UniProtKB/TrEMBL annotation:
Organism per entry: Rhizochromulina marina
Catalytic activity field: tRNA(Thr) + L-threonine + ATP = L-threonyl-tRNA(Thr) + AMP + diphosphate + H(+)
This protein's name: threonine--tRNA ligase
Domain of life of the source: Eukaryota
PANTHER family reported for this sequence: THREONINE--TRNA LIGASE, CHLOROPLASTIC_MITOCHONDRIAL 2 (PTHR11451:SF44), THREONINE-TRNA LIGASE (PTHR11451)
Length: 656
């Protein structure tokens, strides 16, 4: 039997349950003589995979899609707090919001032992009893003094602090029946019977400081998830199970991509050779795409005098997220948390004319932000990360075209990685903002016009914009249905004013440019983590750290393989040789576990004919193909961002 046939037999014997291996071997023998035998044969379908189970149904609803779901989650938080205080009257309540996949509530438990897992079960049973009673949710408006009197009667000091932080009046309270109430603005369901008990599950507990302040009380946070029905909860749980398998922290270690070194400190990423290769490929694609779209690239320092951050306003508004300053010859310097002030300085370095605009500057700029250790999470939340930052300086009448250009570029880049489903939000002027009504209206209209010209559906978050301008936020949906905030486009009327940025208008007077902040990945680290989880480590061929691994059957084949590796290197392809002394079955298993897209078995016949027996992780047996053709087809697949395609007639032949 030829080498490719051996490859098929070994591969499927690794994948099938033991009882099916003998059956497969006999079937392959019966298929001998058929030119297409190895390609046509496929293992029987046994069970739906976790991935298919998690993604086979329509996407789960979100709080933005379904107000009913939002109300269910908010009321579930209140019902949980009521159940806790029924079971543990000495416990004090604090806040309990809805969140993306459910809800939580923070409690002050005087019991040093805190809550236990068995307590969670008891709390859920009590919630079910409250739901069954169909108690009404009643909204009441009271004066601030009346609210204070009621809270003091309950001995709830945390709620007094919440009351003091509420700036509007009257104060609103929501009651559950006549037994329990909380300060709340709503919304809620009409009665507890509208909650689906089989669509609610308490998940976990965690510690949380009151108001996020480490000097304040340590509270116990109970998380729950809530859905419109039991089927949605089941789908969500399947997604969670699949997400565990795809955890980028686990895959990052397994595939030797990156690490977080405790000796160096938390939230600081060490890129290993394979991870560095992927990052380099991603960044090169990002740079090439930007240059082709009319951007110029910048490189700026990692530190600057503190006065720069005072000018930009970051020191006033974001000081808690910045590292401490360092003394440099009597001046205070700040490691940068943002790139935008640097781009403003470059703009201001020379006088600009209206003929120079628009200016598009992009930078892969590494920034550093202080994050508490408890919030750090793999690549998703770190202290040092690289923003794919860009700033556009343009005239008011250019803004709409620039927004369309950014949206086109965003789609071009994200779709390259397989992200084609987006949720788009347009956020408008908040109560506290800078800039005139005229410029806010014009910028908001330009963002709307850009989205409409692009043909993208979007939702409007009234009052959700930044204080310095309206914005567009784009979430991507991954392979198992989760959404991730990545891309953002923000108009800024603040920094041009603070840095006194100007251009000479056609009439000869000086005017302010409109500044647009935009990022597509958000940060390279976080996007890398999202990509690893979405692909389960099976990175696309074009950006995989190793595109093909050569598996020599004999020691004599090694020199032949090394010559192929060198030829591939000269062609800009990433091909490696399995350098171990393992048998072929182990080599195949190792390549599979390393998520290598292509593997090529090399034996005496391949050496004699100048060919490779190719198997693709996504396409199965590709047949016996000439070396030059294999490398050419990898190069084509890389250029197109597609999977490897075998030539017609490349199926292996079997000898009688």
């Amino acid at each position: 039997m030829r080498t490719a046939a051996c490859l098929t037999m070994i591969y499927y014997s690794l994948c099938l349950p033991r009882g099916l291996v003998a059956w497969q071997s006999g079937s392959a023998a019966a298929l001998r003589g058929s030119r297409w035998a190895a390609r046509a044969w496929a293992p029987p379908r046994l069970l739906m995979s976790a991935t298919e189970e998690a993604t086979s149904a329509k996407p789960l609803p979100t709080n933005e899609d379904s107000e009913r779901l939002l109300r269910i989650r908010h009321t579930s938080a209140h019902v949980m707090a009521m159940a806790v205080q029924r079971l543990f009257p000495e416990v004090q309540v604090t806040i309990g919001p809805w969140i993306d996949n459910g809800f939580y509530y923070d409690f002050k438990n005087p019991d040093e032992g805190g809550f236990t897992e068995s307590d969670l079960k008891a709390i859920k049973k009590e919630m079910d009893r409250i739901i069954k009673k169909k108690l009404p949710l009643i909204r009441e408006e009271v004066s601030r003094d009346e609210a204070r009197t009621r809270i003091e009667a309950l001995n709830e000091p945390f709620k007094l602090e919440i009351l003091d932080s509420i700036e509007t009046e009257p104060i609103t309270i929501y009651h559950i029946g006549d037994e329990w109430w909380d300060l709340c603005a709503g919304p809620h369901v009409e009665h507890t019977g509208e909650l689906p008990p089989k669509g609610i599950q308490l998940q976990s507990m965690a510690g949380a400081y009151w108001r996020g302040d480490e000097s304040r009380d340590m509270l116990t946070r109970i998380y729950g998830t809530a859905w419109e029905d039991a089927a949605q909860l089941s789908q969500y749980k399947a997604m969670l199970e699949e997400a565990k398998k795809r955890d980028h922290r686990v895959l990052g270690k397994k595939l030797d991509l990156f690490s977080i070194q405790d000796e160096a400190g938390g939230g600081l990423v060490f890129w290993h050779p394979k991870g560095s290769t992927v990052r380099r490929v991603i960044e090169d694609f990002w740079k090439d795409t930007h240059l082709a779209s009319g951007y110029e690239l910048l490189y700026t320092p990692h530190v600057a005098n503190l006065e720069l951050w005072k000018t930009s306003g970051h020191f006033d508004f974001y000081r808690e997220g910045m590292f401490d300053q360092m003394d440099v010859e009597g001046d205070e310097y700040q490691i940068k948390p943002m790139n935008c002030p640097f781009h403003c300085l470059v703009y201001k370095d020379s006088l600009r004319s209206y003929r120079d605009l628009p200016i598009r500057w992009a930078e892969l700029g590494t920034v550093y932000r202080y994050e508490r250790s408890g919030t750090l999470h793999g690549l998703m939340r770190v202290r040092g990360f690289t923003q794919d930052d860009a700033h556009i300086f343009c005239l008011p009448n250019q803004l709409s075209d620039e927004i369309v250009g950014v949206l086109d570029l965003t789609e071009q880049i994200l779709s390259k990685f397989g992200f084609n489903n987006y949720e788009v939000m347009l956020s408008t002027r908040p109560e506290k903002s800078v800039g005139s009504d005229e410029i806010w209206d014009a910028a908001t209209a330009a963002l709307q016009d850009g989205l409409q010209r692009k043909g993208w559906e979007y939702k409007v978050d009234e009052g959700g914009g930044a204080f310095y301008g309206p914005k567009i936020d784009i979430k991507i949906r991954d392979a198992i249905g989760r959404t991730w905030q990545c891309s953002t486009i923000q108009c800024d009327f603040n920094l041009p004013e603070r840095f006194d940025l100007e251009y000479v208008a056609s009439e000869g007077d000086r005017q302010r440019p409109i500044m647009v902040h935009r990022a597509i990945f958000g940060s390279v680290e976080r996007f890398f983590g999202i990509l690893v989880e979405s692909t389960a480590g099976d990175l696309p061929l074009w950006c995989a750290p190793v595109q093909m691994r050569l598996l020599p059957v004999t020691d004599e084949a090694r020199a032949y393989c090394e010559s192929i590796v060198e030829k591939a290197r000269r062609a800009g392809l990433r091909v490696e040789l399995d350098k171990g002394a393992d048998r072929l079955a182990k080599q195949i298993r190792n390549a599979e576990q390393s998520r290598v897209p292509l593997m090529a078995v090399v034996g005496a016949q391949e050496m004699e004919s100048g060919t490779l027996s190719i198997r693709a992780r996504k396409g199965g047996d590709m047949g016996v193909i000439a070396i030059g053709d294999v490398l050419d087809r990898i190069a084509i697949a890389v250029e197109q961002g597609s999977d490897f395609q075998a030539p017609d007639g490349a199926a292996p032949e079997y000898e009688e």
